[in-house]
Design brief:
single chain, alpha/beta, six-stranded parallel sheet, globular, binds alpha-D-galactopyranose, binds zinc ion
Length: 682
């Protein structure tokens, strides 16, 4: 497989809109050079131009664009057009159109809404991909295949129902096994024929059975991966050396992206932050999304495939980026392991849904706007930083985030999801915050991950246990790791059957040295206290913190209490515990606590284990990540200020500014919304 050797800068280029305006296409080339672009993504939504009539391919126009770009030193990321089908196909083959959960088939409309099972759609997509690969698959300009666009959603058509039943047959073998896993004897819900099973169809069918929903989501993922494999296979035949990606969507929960790791050579994703809306929270959330995406394939850099250089039209508030923010947001991706800064899109549409979406070139058509200059500055800076291409992202801490666990927890309404962002993702973000505040490189991994590179693993609400995760965590602690778990851990197996004999199951009770007995859900206006026992708090912890929403009551076996609840009938019972196990330690946080608890508690562990990228206290809104040159191991420290005011960072000796080469003073001055890249002085 051939990979690029420079940081990529560019974005979605949709010249199909402008084919009747050659002067605009000409000007695009000039402006792309001016903006320091070196990679453009082509043909994402061009099916109607690539195949105007069934079986008649027209690729000459695309070849001209690819060639023109290439002559200017701009490579092509070539998309397959399966994200949006042409009208003739929808009309002639209605089976390609998705059926909604209410059982109704959609009309020709929108995009990203085809049936992933339909043999006709697969056949059309494969024929198109084969033709594209035959024509362009060995072209030196083409550096990457971009499969489809933002795979997602689900289809409930008869073809998908039949495929789902086949999937279930393969998984369970017999109806008895399925009925047992679904605990169907309750409510007289046992299936006596496979035909009785349907997908979770809101309004008309079973849609609140947790295991059915879980299996359906697994099936949708498998079917989408299978569709992507079919797309990839058609390309591979004629284009064996060009790597493959698809653009993912960060925290999107419709698919388990972990299952895509093998079909993608490169991970890429589309990043649309809500900047300037509770700044630090947003910066940390974007940081975590980058980490989640990168961790899908930790051995290779990822690509930020889309971002807006300006406002994003579909957000409720299309805020403009404040000066400095575009550079910071772009380089934040690089700080987290991206080898690219790509935009959606190059030139603003003249009409239609996305005509006001930020683009590099606006309706004025010039290179003299604030947005264009921002983009140009990013292009110039990336151009000087090519040594960063391919650099590693070394992490010694990990957060556990498994989509199957999230799928189940998000269905358990009463206890977990009483308020938005209070479910699994809310807990994960809260746990991530101390790592962000302390400038720690952290991977966000699923249950398939190898945990041996880490010293600290934090696993909020590890409710569902699968893929040998309990054994892996046990070994991790035995061998000296520090594990942080919480309430609602080890409750059920991979079919969501609760462990008999208590939680946490599968031996995690020994690792944590306790058994959970009950969990109390608090009304929003209620709270409890977590009171540290004298001398038991970690360095820097306060005497007391607030507990809200969930308080689990546990019985200790070998664990030691570090804190207890302050009131109610469980006053004095453990609220925070530690258990020495093998050479390591396992902490258990019994209640959902205020952010300052997580900041202080995890902050103490971070300092104790020496996990900070730079050994210093960071001011609010400032964080640090480090990447490492793959060949030379030279470190690159990205010091990022997401605050709207200047910040100072105290630096130990021995740092130099990577870009100027100048040694750093003891205090590094950071402009509002800015980023400096440091290295070790020679
Ligand atoms: C998504 C899509 C793009 C575009 C952008 C707009 O990420 O992939 O085609 O619609 O959103 O933000
Ligand atoms: Zn379907």
């Amino acid at each position: 497989m051939k990979y690029w050797n420079t940081l990529l800068h560019g974005g979605d280029y949709n010249p199909g809109q402008w084919l009747d305006s050659p002067e605009i296409l000409e000007e695009d080339l000039r402006l792309m050079k001016q903006a320091g672009c070196n990679a453009m993504t082509l043909a994402i939504f061009d099916w109607e131009r690539l195949e105007p009539e069934e079986g008649r391919y027209e690729f000459d126009w695309l070849e001209t664009i690819i060639e023109n770009l290439y002559r200017q030193g701009i490579s092509t990321v070539l998309a397959t057009p399966s994200g949006a089908r042409p009208g003739w196909m929808a009309q002639k083959y209605p089976e390609v159109l998705r059926v909604n959960p209410d059982g109704r088939r959609i009309l020709f409309s929108q995009r990203h809404n085809h049936c992933y099972t339909s043999p006709v759609y697969r056949e059309k997509v494969q024929a198109m991909n084969r033709a594209l690969a035959q024509r362009f698959g060995r072209h030196p300009a083409v550096i990457l295949w971009h499969l489809s666009n933002e795979y997602g959603g689900e289809c409930h058509c008869p073809l998908c129902q039949a495929a789902f039943r086949e999937w279930l047959k393969k998984k369970y073998g017999t109806l008895e096994a399925l009925n047992h896993a679904y605990w169907n004897s309750f409510w007289s819900h046992s299936y006596s024929d496979w035909e009785q099973i349907s997908s979770p169809m809101e309004g008309i069918g079973e849609h609140s059975h947790h295991t059915l929903v879980l299996d359906w989501k697994r099936f949708v993922t498998d079917q989408t991966v299978d569709f992507m494999r079919a797309e990839a296979a058609a390309l591979r035949q004629y284009s064996p050396d060009v790597p493959i990606t698809t653009n993912m969507m960060g925290f999107y929960d419709g698919l388990n992206y972990g299952k895509f790791r093998d079909v993608c050579d490169v991970i890429s994703w589309d990043n649309y932050p809500h900047w300037h809306n509770g700044e630090e929270g947003e910066a940390a959330s974007v940081a975590m999304a980058h980490d989640l995406m990168r961790s899908l394939k930790p051995d290779r850099p990822f690509l930020m495939m889309e971002s807006s250089p300006s406002a994003t039209n579909w957000e409720p508030v299309a805020k403009l980026r404040r000066p400095g923010m575009h550079m910071l947001s772009s380089l934040q991706a690089v700080a987290h392991g991206s080898d690219s800064v790509q935009y959606f899109q190059w030139r603003k549409c003249r009409g239609g849904f996305e005509k006001f979406h930020g683009a590099v070139v606006g309706h004025d058509g010039t290179g003299s706007t604030r947005v264009f200059r921002d983009v140009q500055q990013v292009g110039e800076r990336l151009g000087r930083l090519s040594q960063l291409c391919g650099a590693r992202f070394p992490a010694r801490a990990a957060l556990l985030c498994d989509m199957e666990n999230r799928w189940i927890l998000d269905q358990i309404k009463g206890l977990i999801n009483s308020q938005p962002e209070k479910g699994f993702l809310g807990d994960l973000k809260a746990m991530y915050r101390p790592f962000f505040r302390n400038g720690v490189n952290v991977d966000v991994v699923d249950m398939e991950a190898d945990l041996t590179p880490y010293q600290l693993v934090a696993a909020p609400m590890l409710y569902l246990l699968r893929a040998g995760i309990a054994g892996k965590l046990r070994r991790f602690v035995e061998e000296g790791g520090v594990l942080v778990g919480t309430y609602w851990s080890g409750v059920a197996d991979e079919n969501d059957l609760c462990f008999l004999g208590g939680a946490p199951g599968q031996g995690l009770d020994e690792v944590f040295g306790l058994r959970a007995e009950e969990i109390d859900a608090l009304y929003p206006q209620d709270s409890n206290q977590v009171q540290l026992l004298p001398g038991k708090g970690l360095p820097g912890m306060k005497e007391s913190y607030q507990a809200r929403e969930l308080c689990e009551l546990v019985n200790l076996t070998t664990a030691q209490p570090l804190a207890v609840y302050g009131q109610d009938f469980y006053q004095g019972r453990p609220a925070l515990t530690v258990n020495r196990f093998g050479k390591g330690r396992a902490y258990y946080i019994c209640s959902r606590n205020s952010q300052d608890f997580l900041d202080d508690f995890l902050g103490a562990l971070i300092r104790e284990l020496g996990l900070r990228a730079i050994d210093t206290e960071l001011p609010a809104q400032v964080t640090v990540n480090v990447r490492e040159n793959r060949e030379t191991s030279r470190p690159y420290y990205f010091v990022q200020n997401f605050g709207g005011s200047p910040a100072q960072v105290k630096l130990p000796q021995g740092f130099a500014d990577l870009e100027s080469g100048a040694p750093c003073p003891g205090v590094l001055e950071l402009e509002p919304y800015s980023l400096r890249i440091l290295t070790k002085a020679e």
